Amino acid sequence: MPTYQYRCEKCGEMFEHAERLAEHETAHPACPKCGSQQVQHTPTPFVAKTSRKS
Hints:
Layout: E1 3-8, E2 14-18, H1 21-24, E3 39-42
Antiparallel strand pairs: 1-2, 1-3
């Protein structure tokens, strides 16, 4: 299950939330610090690791 990163607009807390791909469009997790529903999905850097040496 993928983990997405969110930022609370009220208190600035950054947190991660695991959700299914199908749920991601409709998921609105609450901030674990202040409970606010005003959270924004933040882009997460992605690094692909391969077995080939570069």
